[in-house]
Design goal:
membrane, globular, mainly alpha, 364 residues, Acyltransferase family protein, Nod_factor_acetyltransferase, acyltransferase activity
Length: 364
């Protein structure tokens, strides 16, 4: 007999239970890739803005400088506004987007409006110049305009004929002298069609602009625009391009404001297409600067205005071709430096403040 068969059967020893496997942490979302084309376009547009500002004091003694000035002013801000509209096309009234609108647009407007006021008091020896958040000074008009445009984006997304409606509003503004200077509403309304058009543009529209035939056709178009501007210098008030006054304020009949609204919109869009057709699509050495264009835009204004206050343009040499070229090169170098990441980090407290203390935490 097998003795082992008489022994009580012992329960089998269980292997120690392994600890439950931890759930793998959800992968963090990959950072959104920036489009090199749009960063390149924003950088090149802000360079043209700076060039236009340094050319302004050179116009009196140079018809060529005036022609280039008028050509650039026809499209540099419309191009920038069009791209701003394109990147605002998904804006709605979600809390996180409203927070970003306040911290990225409204707060910088307040801070730079105050900073510009104190700068003018000091640099222009005008200690009584008032602080007024309702009357944007110099470059800050774009921030208040962007704030208004972006808030109205949901309305433009549901309108049946949004661009036509925006053009009608701009035309009415151009012949309405009673709008006044509060919040620079003339500019807000007269530049509105470019923003609305950008809201309704799609990637395929920009791809059409970058076709080879468009690129080569743009060369004679821009050349013709410069020739026309050279002819128009003694015949046209460049203040039309600023869009900050009505027709009556510029000494023209009211109906001219309507005509100029549509004429300038057409010319601006043609030259904007020509400009975007030549913007590189691949990453360039200046692509990274596209993220800092608002820094370059607001900061270069101190030097642009200071050069007038301090009489830098009083030197006769600057009004000759070598001096004009030198001024242009300096403007490009300065605005490029102001768009760099170190400058962004230094001024992020004013341009992109976090301000967590000012907002409620969202539950969940």
């Amino acid at each position: 007999m097998n003795v082992s068969s008489l022994l009580p059967t012992l329960p089998a020893r269980r292997a120690p239970a392994s600890p439950p496997a931890r759930a793998a942490p959800a992968p963090s979302p990959a950072p959104k890739q920036r489009d090199a084309f749009f960063d390149n376009a924003k950088y090149l547009a802000i360079v043209l803005v700076a060039m236009g500002h340094v050319w302004e004091p050179l116009r009196d003694g140079s018809r060529a400088a005036s022609a280039l000035y008028m050509t650039v002013y026809t499209f540099h801000m419309p191009a920038f506004i069009l791209i701003s509209g394109y990147f605002s096309r998904n804006f709605d009234l979600r809390p996180d987007r409203l927070k970003r609108l306040i911290t990225g647009v409204a707060v910088p407007y307040v801070l730079f409006e105050i900073a510009y006021t104190f700068f003018k008091r000091w640099a222009d020896d005008d200690p009584s110049y008032p602080i007024s958040l309702l009357d944007p000074w110099y470059l800050t008009w774009f921030l208040i305009a962007l704030f208004v445009w972006r808030l109205t984006t949901p309305l433009w997304r549901i309108a049946r004929w949004p661009v036509a409606l925006a053009l009608a509003i701009a035309a009415l503004a151009a012949c309405s002298p009673n709008i006044g200077d509060d919040l620079d509403l003339q500019r807000v309304l007269q530049f509105l069609p470019f923003f609305v058009l950008g809201v309704h543009m799609r990637p395929e529209h920009f791809r059409l602009m970058r076709r080879r035939e468009v690129r080569w056709l743009s060369v004679p178009v821009v050349a013709a625009a410069v020739v026309f501007a050279y002819w128009a210098v003694p015949r046209m008030n460049p203040a039309w391009f600023y869009r900050r006054d009505s027709a009556q304020e510029l000494g023209a009949p009211w109906w001219v404001g309507t005509v100029m609204t549509f004429a300038l919109f057409g010319c601006s869009m043609v030259l904007t297409v020509c400009f975007l057709a030549w913007v590189p699509r691949r990453r360039m050495w200046f692509t990274v600067l596209g993220a800092g264009t608002l820094y370059g835009y607001l900061l270069h204004g101190f030097l642009a205005k200071g050069s007038r206050f301090w009489g830098w343009y009083d030197h006769p040499w600057l009004h000759r071709p070598p001096g004009e070229i030198a001024v242009t090169v300096v403007a490009v170098a300065v605005v490029t430096a102001l768009c760099t990441p170190p400058v962004q980090r230094a001024f992020r407290f004013a341009m992109e403040p976090r301000m967590e203390w000012a907002f409620r935490r969202r539950d969940g």
